Amino acid sequence: MQLLVSVRNAAEALAALAGGADIIDAKDPAAGALGAVSLPTFASITHCVSGTVPVSAALGEAGELALDERVRTFGRRGAAFVKIGFARLARGEVAALLAAASTAGSASGTAVVAVAYADWPSVDSLCPDTIVELAGAGKVNGVLLDTADKAGPGLFGLLSELQIGAWVHRVQSAGMFAALAGQVEATDMARICSTGADIVGVRGAACDNGRGGAISAGRVRQLSGALQDPMQRRHPIEDRLAVPARNSRQR
Fold first, then answer.
1. Is 34 part of any domain?
2. Is 250 within a domain?
3. Whether 144 contacts 115, CB under 8 Å
4. Is 27 among the catalytic positions?
């Protein structure tokens, strides 16, 4: 399993790297669950990471974007993969946008990750299983199960370990990689690992003073260490990471 740490600037990226993050994720936490950073900020993050680990980018909600252009732009600036949400969109709209994003990602060498929300009714999104179905049909690379409301219950407050594990299996059975996030703490890592997911994403657990604070290398090191503990690796996974796996340290 790989540890993804969401950072808002280059200084936080360096702290996350020092703590042992496998993937650096560019995201503005003040702008929502998938708040995008500016292109100059993204460039500064990729510059300081300098190819040592993959860099991903949150792009926001698909209905608010010139999506294919944004995918190509961030891909050409060095994003190994991009994350896209689908709040307030109907099934047909999501299907069309996923196909467009997949085409744009292929053109720029960027993997596309569709985001499903465990608290999907609160943001008028399609349910996680439907997002998996449409993501597979749209030939994107991965699906992330996250929470939209960062003040609400976390992932394990909304779904059981068994439900999350079954969802992960559906994603992987469709040939995509599965990522989990949503107020995940160090104490959740055993349960995260038991689901067989490929990536776990964190922000608040890696910060001093919560999600709005600064990334702490020590906190990232604690999270990374929890994943390296053999007791937390009960379900070995296949290498499904495709583009995100390049230049990354496999656990």
1. yes
2. no
3. yes
4. yes
